[in-house]
Each structure stands twice: as structure tokens, then as C-alpha cells.
Design brief:
There is one protein chain. The protein has 317 residues and is of the alpha/beta class. The chain has 3 domains: 2-11 and 196-292, 3-Layer(aba) Sandwich (Cobalt-precorrin-4 Transmethylase, domain 1); 13-96 and 300-315, Rossmann fold, CATH 3.40.50.11270; 98-188, Cobalt-precorrin-4 Transmethylase, domain 1 (3-Layer(aba) Sandwich), CATH 3.40.1010. 37% of the residues lie in helices and 20% in strands. It has a 6-stranded mixed β-sheet with strand order 3-2-4-5-15-14, with helices on both faces. Strand 10, helix 9 (224-236) and strand 11 form a beta-alpha-beta unit. The N and C termini lie far apart (49 Å). The structure holds iron/sulfur cluster (SF4). Iron/sulfur cluster is lined by residues 12-15, 73, 96, 98-99, 165-166, 195, 197-198, 225, 266.
Length: 317
């Protein structure tokens, strides 16, 4: 049996940066350490942090003044930052620089009286953070082609759109086309906001799905990125499973299978993929191959640590 590993897979530059920040914090400060949200959407990482004294999703009003407070890779609203300043929290900002870029675009729209259609999941932390950059202009959420076709806009003369970074590339292009047809003057702020890591992982899972009998995605169901990999793969392959780790794998999935495609989401640690491969080898003489889309070279610098007036002691410069 052949195992075909997707490349690139696993951690993106934003997740690597967020994890390096939290490592630095855990090495320097004692618990409790507070977070606005899960650092990244992977159950193994979330449980690891909880076991190391990180308290996640605590209402900011209940966090003691002066505590250590980490903003997750998905970013946060202006309100969260303002409340954190008021409470004199020491803020470590692990927002992915690519999400920050969207915040700058959102602030530009807000400051220039441009209403915004945000394409994404209204419950996702990243989208909540983007909406939270606005206090002057109107935001609308479009989650599907149906929304794009029927959403009612009060005034489309000054309108732009932004997207979440981890959407399905194909579905999002369709949504954007509908919006452009309905609102010919709609502005595209910057280029597409779907990030390079999402693009690459979806392109390679498409190839895996077309060339293998079974696709296994190592990732958590809380991850938008992992779920979108499953959506793309399921369009081309009927045997697609997303699992947190090897222990969820079922032997019967191997019935009548000659090739297994394996990939992982942008927040999945590589050791979970290796563990899975070791586990699966017990069932057959596996030959391991790779399908390579490209070699990612994106790397975000670790923020310098210093204290700003607003008490941000970890800040990108
Ligand atoms: S998936 Fe993209 S936007 Fe999200 S953390 Fe990774 S690089 Fe940043």
C-alpha cells in the first residue's frame, strides 16, 4: 500500500509565530496566564496549554488587573484591546500578521466611510476580530452563495469586501463574482485575503483527493482550515476522513484501498502526522511517497519584547 504525504502540510508561519510567542511567555511567566481564545484551533495544542496553566476564553472583566494576557493568532476586536489597556493587562499579541493586515484594511474602510461585506463565518474568532475594527461604518456578513445573491445592502455607493483567511478558495471566488456582478463598484481592499497557507494546503489536498483512494486529514473539527481541506477533498474523493490523531482511525477504512493520501491543517503539529504514519504501518508494507506542490518559505519574525505606553509588552515591529 502507498502512503502519499502532501507537501506543504501542517504549521503555517502564523501558527509557528503564535507558538513561539506562547513558548516565550510560558518560559518567562508563572501561571495563571490568560488568553482571549484558543491560541490556534487544534485540540492537542489547546489541551497542552490548559495543562500548563493557560486559562482560555475567560471574560476579560474577570481577569485580575495586571495579568498576562495573550491574543490568539486569530486576532481580536478593538474593544478587547481597549478593555485590556484599562485593566493594565500585559498584552502579548500573537495575531497572525496576515490577519493584522486585514485589520488595517478594515480600519481604512471604517475611517473612510466605506461599508464592508465580510465573507466568512460570523461565529469564527477571526471574523469577530475583523468586525470589531469597525465603529463608524456598517458591516455585513456573507457566508454562502445564497447570502451573496440575496443580501440587502442599504447603500452600495461606498462598499468594499474582505474575506476570512481560511475559506475555501473555490467557493469564495464564486461568492466574490456574485458580489461584483451585483455591486459593480464594490472595492477590493488589497488582494484576496485568503492566505498563502490556506491556498497551498487546498491545492495540494485537491491533488491528493484526485490521485488516492482514501484521504486522511489530521486536524481538529474546531479548525476552519482543516474543515475546508475536508470540503475540497470531498468534492473529488468519497473516502475522506478528518481525525485529531491516529486513535480515531478505523481499520475498516482500509478495505479495498491501495493508496492513502495524508495531509494536515495549518494548526496541526507534525508529530501527530508522524504518529499516524507509524500507526498505519502496522497494517501493511507501506511505501511512503510525497506529492509536492511547493516549498513554503514564509516566516514571520518573532515580535520584539518591550513595553509600550499601552502596556503591550510583545509587539511586532
Ligand atoms: S492560516 Fe494563514 S492567516 Fe491563519 S495563522 Fe496561518 S498564515 Fe496566518
Amino acid at each position: 500500500m502507498d502512503i502519499i504525504l502532501a507537501k506543504p502540510r501542517g504549521f503555517c508561519a502564523g501558527v509557528i509565530r503564535a507558538i513561539n510567542i506562547i513558548k516565550q511567555v510560558l518560559n518567562t511567566y508563572k501561571s495563571p496566564i490568560y488568553m482571549n481564545h484558543e491560541l490556534v484551533h487544534n485540540n492537542y495544542i489547546v489541551n497542552y496549554l490548559k495543562n500548563h496553566g493557560v486559562i482560555i476564553n475567560r471574560n476579560i472583566n474577570d481577569i485580575p488587573n495586571g495579568s498576562i494576557f495573550i491574543i490568539s493568532a486569530h486576532g481580536a476586536s478593538k474593544n478587547i484591546f481597549n478593555n485590556a489597556y484599562k485593566k493594565n493587562l500585559n498584552i502579548f499579541d500573537a495575531t497572525c500578521p496576515l490577519v493584522k493586515k486585514i485589520h488595517y484594511r478594515a480600519s481604512y474602510a471604517n475611517n473612510n466611510n466605506i461599508d464592508t461585506i465580510i465573507i466568512g463565518n460570523p461565529k469564527h474568532q477571526e471574523v469577530l476580530g475583523i468586525i470589531g475594527q469597525y465603529d463608524r461604518t456598517t458591516t455585513y456578513i456573507v457566508e454562502s452563495l445564497y447570502d451573496a445573491n440575496y443580501i440587502k445592502i442599504k447603500n452600495s455607493s461606498k462598499l468594499c469586501f474582505l474575506t476570512q483567511t481560511t475559506l475555501s478558495v473555490f467557493d469564495t471566488y464564486q461568492i466574490i463574482n456574485v458580489l461584483k456582478n451585483r455591486f459593480p463598484n464594490i472595492l477590493e481592499l488589497g488582494r484576496n485575503n485568503i492566505c498563502y497557507a490556506t491556498n497551498n494546503r487546498q491545492q495540494v489536498v485537491y491533488k491528493l483527493a484526485k490521485t488516492t483512494d482514501l484521504v486522511v486529514i489530521i486536524g481538529s473539527d474546531i479548525s476552519s482550515n482543516a474543515n475546508k481541506l475536508a470540503i475540497v477533498a470531498k468534492k473529488y474523493n468519497k473516502n475522506v476522513y478528518m481525525i485529531d490523531n491516529f486513535s480515531y482511525f478505523k481499520k475498516q477504512w482500509l478495505n479495498n484501498i491501495n493508496t492513502i493520501g495524508v495531509t494536515s491543517s495549518a494548526s496541526t503539529p507534525e508529530f501527530l502526522v508522524k504518529q499516524f504514519i507509524e500507526y498505519i504501518k502496522q497494517y501493511d508494507n507501506m511505501i511512503i511517497k510525497e506529492i509536492i506542490l511547493n516549498k513554503e518559505k514564509v516566516l514571520f519574525k518573532l515580535p520584539k519584547i518591550f513595553k509600550t505606553k499601552q502596556n503591550i509588552i510583545c509587539y511586532d515591529k
